[in-house]
């Protein structure tokens, strides 16, 4: 089941979107639950209620906390959810795009156009659930990087630098893929996807490890990495847990 949040201070527009989702449900048989919020403050208060949101449709022009600020807080809590902005008058800004929205809906668009957009959005939601990813900065653009293609994330000056496997599509970006968070902070978000710290400055994708030894391991690329003494126990326990979970 997909968990969808709609945040808009216009109750009628929320009901309008609900009707659109019902139309789409008849065509594609998607399983979803919608959560309604009439302000950014209300949405933010509910972000830690145990609901893993897959999609947020967010009005940019809200009273009180505006759409940009709401999106910023939501994105920190749900970095991999799909975000869609909607508005009747306001255009997206540079600040808006920092929250990496997938689409922008104008409320005055024709119903058929909005249905087509929501169908595209739900296809993206479905793909996200099947293939988790992380958003990285590449020069002046934002790029989606599949987690399965990441070898490790290392400390950089202002966050982390992503190193990917050499035979994946993301390898064309060379060494320019950056994220805003340090490996230690990202480890909590990526733990469930098989990532663990081998050192305080290296977050490793354990799915790419071929051999693990006392104080080092070998990637499937042949690279050998050290495991810091302080992380040897936790790293090996995480590896054992990952291995057992994959093959049960």
What would your notes on this structure say?
It is a single chain. The strands form three sheets. The protein has a seven-stranded antiparallel sheet with strand order 7-6-10-9-8-12-11. It has a five-stranded parallel sheet with strand order 2-1-3-4-5, sandwiched between helices. The chain has a three-stranded antiparallel sheet with strand order 13-14-15, with no helix packed on it. The chain has seven helices and 15 strands. It is elongated, with a radius of gyration of 20 Å. It is α/β, with parallel strands linked by helices and 248 residues long.
| Residue-averaged pLDDT | 89
Question: In angstroms, what is the radius of gyration?
Answer: 20 Å
Named CATH architecture of the largest domain: 3-Layer(aba) Sandwich
Q: Major sheet: size, sense and barrel closure?
A: 7 strands, antiparallel
- Category by helix and strand content: alpha/beta
Overall geometry: elongated
**Poorly predicted ranges:** none
Helix fraction? 25-40%
**Would you give the CATH topology of the largest domain?**
Rossmann fold
CATH class of the largest domain: Alpha Beta
Annotation, overall tally of beta strands: 15
Spatial strand order of the main sheet: 7-6-10-9-8-12-11
- Annotation field: number of helices: 7
Notable characteristics:
248 residues; alpha/beta; Rossmann fold; OB fold (Dihydrolipoamide Acetyltransferase, E2P); seven-stranded antiparallel sheet; five-stranded parallel sheet; 33% helix
């Amino acid at each position: 089941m997909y968990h969808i949040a709609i945040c808009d201070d216009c109750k009628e527009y929320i009901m309008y979107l609900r009707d659109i989702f019902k139309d789409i449900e008849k065509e594609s048989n998607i399983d979803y639950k919608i959560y309604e919020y009439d302000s950014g403050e209300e949405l933010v208060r509910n972000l830690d209620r145990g609901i893993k949101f897959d999609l947020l449709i967010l009005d940019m022009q809200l009273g009180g906390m505006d759409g940009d600020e709401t999106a910023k807080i939501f994105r920190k809590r749900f970095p991999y959810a799909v975000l869609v902005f909607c508005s009747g008058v306001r255009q997206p800004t540079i600040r808006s795009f920092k929250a990496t929205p997938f689409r922008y809906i104008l409320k005055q668009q024709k119903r058929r156009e909005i249905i087509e957009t929501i169908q595209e959005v739900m296809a993206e939601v479905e793909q996200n659930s099947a293939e988790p990813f992380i958003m990285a900065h590449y020069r002046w653009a934002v790029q989606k990087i599949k987690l399965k293609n990441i070898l490790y994330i290392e400390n950089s000056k202002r966050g982390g630098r992503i190193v990917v496997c050499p035979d994946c599509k993301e390898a064309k970006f060379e060494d320019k893929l950056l994220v805003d968070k340090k490996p230690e902070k990202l480890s909590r978000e990526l733990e469930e996807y098989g990532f663990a710290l081998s050192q305080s400055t290296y977050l490793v994708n354990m799915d790419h490890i071929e051999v693990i030894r006392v104080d080092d391991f070998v990637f499937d690329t042949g690279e050998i990495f050290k495991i810091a003494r302080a992380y040897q126990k936790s790293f090996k326990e995480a590896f054992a847990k990952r291995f057992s979970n994959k093959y049960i």
